[in-house]
Amino acid sequence: MLVRGPGEATRAFIAAVTPHLHHPIYEPSTCDVLPFTPAAGTLILRDVDACGREQQQRLLRWLEEPHNGYTQVIALTATQLYDLVQAGTFLERLYYHLNVTQFEVISD
Amino acid sequence: MQNRILLVEDDETTRDLLSIVLKRAGYDVVASRSVQEGQAVLENAPPDLLITDLRLGAFNGLQLIAMASRRIPAIVTTGFPDTVLEADARQFGATFLPKPIEAAELLTLVEELLQKRA
């Protein structure tokens, strides 16, 4: 799932949907994927548009590995991620993996 | 009554060719170029079956299935083999069909899915 909007709006969105997410919830402080594979749950990636190339590739490899259980991935971005794909700074394959569903959130 | 198929494909040549194949097989085809156009058809004139490309510019064709208000049989096509998105498509109850698409294979699959629905 891709969620686009300003930081406060995406934070509010996450807070609102948290009761409905698969638990446990993993929220790494950087784009670097966790050093372990969650058995199941939700992975929240903040500022995915700020992930560097190496981090994107690592994330893509992690997404394409088989996992035990089902891990839901929510990627948050303040920018139009497809613009970065077209500019060549965000991996296209990763973009389509993250963008299975898409929400745009706005500030009040 | 003719079965109605919504085809969502941003490549004009592919869209035209698939439309011809499906129409010659006797289906009523609505061809859309984008997720937005496809969503409008799904809401206003729901088809019996959906065929959608996966990579539709800034949008993922799976969004049409994920966000649909009612469930219809769906085929997801792509020229980029992807086991993750294939698993996502299956999760949504869709059938994954990699490109290049063989007309006979597509028509067999369409018939099977429509018969299951009936």
Any descriptors?
heterodimer; A: 108 residues; alpha/beta; five-stranded parallel sheet; B: 118 residues; two-stranded antiparallel sheet; 7 strands; globular
- The strand order across the widest sheet of chain B is 2-1-3-6-7
- Computed over alpha carbons, the radius of gyration of chain B is 13 Å
Q: How far is the first residue's CA from the last residue's CA of chain B?
A: 12 Å
Number of helices of chain A: 4
Structural class of chain B: alpha/beta
Uncertain regions spanning at least 5 consecutive residues of chain A:
none
Radius of gyration of chain A: 13 Å
Q: Helix proportion of residues of chain B, in percent?
A: 40-55%
Sheet-strand content of chain B, in percent, reads 15-25%
Helix content of chain A: 25-40%
Main sheet overview of chain A: 5 strands, parallel
Overall pLDDT level of chain A: 86
Explain how this protein is built.
The complex is a heterodimer of chains A (108) and B (118). Chain A has helices spanning 7-17, 53-64, 81-86, 92-98, and strands spanning 2-4, 25-26, 41-45, 71-77, 102-104. Chain A is globular. With 108 residues, chain A is of the alpha/beta class. In chain A, strands 2-3-4-1-5 form a 5-stranded parallel beta sheet, with no helix packed on it. In chain A, β3, α2 (53-64) and β4 (71-77) form a beta-alpha-beta unit. Chain A is 33% helix and 19% strand. Chain A has 4 helices and 5 strands, in the order βαββαβααβ. By secondary structure, chain B is α/β, with parallel strands linked by helices. Chain B starts with a strand and ends with a helix. The longest helix of chain B is centred in the last third of the chain and has 15 residues, at 103-117. The relative contact order of chain B is 0.18.
